[in-house]
Amino acid sequence: MLVDINEEGLLATERAIADSGGQAKIMTIDLSTREACQAVVDAAISQWSRLDVLCNIAGVVRMSEVSKVTEKDWQSLVSTNMAAPFWLSQAAIPHLLETSGNIVNCLSQSAHKGAAYVVPYSMTKAAVLMMTKSMAMEFINEPIRINAVSPGSMETGMSSLQLPEGMDLSLLARYSGLRGPADPADVASVVLFLASEEARVVHGAIFCADDGTTAD
Ligand SMILES: NC(=O)c1ccc[n+]([C@@H]2O[C@H](COP(=O)([O-])OP(=O)(O)OC[C@H]3O[C@@H](n4cnc5c(N)ncnc54)[C@H](O)[C@@H]3O)[C@@H](O)[C@H]2O)c1
User: Fold this and answer.
1) Are 108 and 125 contacting, i.e. CB atoms less than 8 angstroms apart?
2) Nearest atom of ligand 1 to the alpha carbon of 79
3) Which domains does the chain have, with CATH numbers?
4) Beta partners for 56?
5) Ligand 1 within 6 A of 57 CB?
């Protein structure tokens, strides 16, 4: 089940999955409310009567100096990047417990190292890092796994960002990584591994898939 606010992107991904012999259902929805997150899980259950994996991947980023962050941007970052993974997890966990399923959250290099011009974004990603570990502990005695992948720079829609005027590029370079942006498919394969039975002893873990960006 593919969930996004961008219908065009969903249709393209649905086609790609069909072309490779898979099946997908799409749901176009803004995930920024608890009600929407519950509706997504309800729709998945009414379609397949079970849930095996929840991947919390949707996210937004805004580049801005601290003094120029607007309340609208703040709300959007907090509700999409931080609240939606929590509300989706809350709605999904009862179903995942029935299937011994798992959750894979998506962080960022900026959850681990200070990142100029993306302060609220990095705050939301650090919050999801701690959500991953804390939920893992709350469910340590239950049949569920909860993990996160932490990508570095990738060539995606998110890379075509509006840069703040007059920004100090050397500060951006500190968290952009020395190996250049990754192919998102190479990060997706780490998500796939964590979601699979191969990772059955991985719980409460943060897998950095950032080509060494957070190694220094
Ligand atoms: N691109 C990078 O360099 C990079 C680096 C580190 C982490 N990440 C993380 O990777 C994940 C995927 O991002 P991406 O790089 O593929 O960017 P992307 O912009 O291509 O994908 C993000 C998707 O989230 C969707 N989305 C945004 N707000 C939404 C909402 N309210 N409801 C539903 N869908 C919404 C967008 O429509 C988009 O399809 C994000 O969590 C991002 O923070 C990206």
Assistant:
1) yes
2) 31
3) 52-209 (3.40.50.720)
4) 105
5) yes
